[in-house]
Amino acid sequence: xxxISRHLxxxxxxxxxxxxxxxCFTTNGDKNEINxxxxxxxxxxxxxxxxxxxxxxxxxxxxxQYPQGKLVRVISGLVFDVVVDLRKNSNTFGQSxxxxxxxxxxxxxxxxxxxxxxxxxxxxxxDIFYSVTEYRHQEFERILLWSDPELNINWPLLNLTPNLSExxxxxxxxxxxxxxx
Length: 181
What we know:
The chain is about 5% helix and about 40% strand.
């Protein structure tokens, strides 16, 4: 596994040395290799699978306590993936980075704890696999408003109104959001 690019202090786009896929099998990477590349001892506690459809926008999600690191990979389809740095003492606080993640190139995105995360499905559907470093704690889940003008995220909506869950419609502006200290 190798680092393709760095964004917002430690958000990493990763490329596997070998892509193992066929009609029935795919991998999100060897955890020992990932730890070697990241130069950390990251313990993933849960793997999650999500299927979403065209024009669905999810996020921007984070947990204010028990923050999650995430290793994200699209295993079918194409998504526009977004991260926002919510670490108050970071020199990239409030800044966002965007990525087109797809099933063809096998790239994974490492999002360390302290970031909000969301995505928009561009293809007819997308299957997303992600490993997390902390369990879900619903009482600490927070949502940053995807359309906050301060974030200046150029979502590829093509004049469409995205499909948002009721939960995601209730996101808060960065100015009014809880952040990591």
